[in-house]
Amino acid sequence: MNKKEIAEAILVMEAWRQDESIQIRDKSSECRKWRPIGTEYQGAAQPTWDWEHDEYRIKPKPREFWIDPQNTLSANHVPAPDENWILVREVL
User: Fold this and answer.
1) Upper half-sphere CA count for residue 40 (Cβ side, 13 Å)
2) Residue 8: enclosing H or E segment and its boundaries?
3) By the 8 A CB rule, do 35 and 25 touch?
4) Which of 9, 20, 34, 51 could form a cystine bridge with 15, CB 3.0-4.6 A?
5) What string of DSSP letters covers 47-67?
């Protein structure tokens, strides 16, 4: 591992220690889907930290934003309760 990879690994391990959700995927697998640590694939809630064969990341937080269906205002506008805006929550 180079210094950048070590720094990223430390951030992931510190996040796990602070009970944040961590995801894993196998570097060699054709399936590139991220899975939460503790799934049947990995078998345990505590990671084994196999950085050579697996990739880890802090689970991304979903984004939230408002959409103006009539596209009449700027993107930085915060809608008032009586406006017909739509709140969008990203699904990860």
Assistant:
1) 0
2) helix 3-17
3) yes
4) 20
5) ----TTTEEEEEPPPPPEEEE
CA dist 91 to 13, 73, 81, Å? 24, 25, 24
- Rg (C-alpha) for the chain, rounded Å, is 19
Mind listing the pLDDT tens digit for each residue in 39-79? 544 545 677 899 999 999 999 988 888 777 776 655 666 66
DSSP bridge partners of 22: 58
- Type of residue numbered 1: M
Q: What's the pLDDT at 52?
A: 92
Provide the whole-model pTM: 0.67
Tokens 């709140």 map to which residue?
87
* Contact status, residue 22 vs residue 56, Cβ threshold 8 Å: yes
Q: Which of 85, 90, 92, 62 is nearest to 76 (CA)?
A: 85
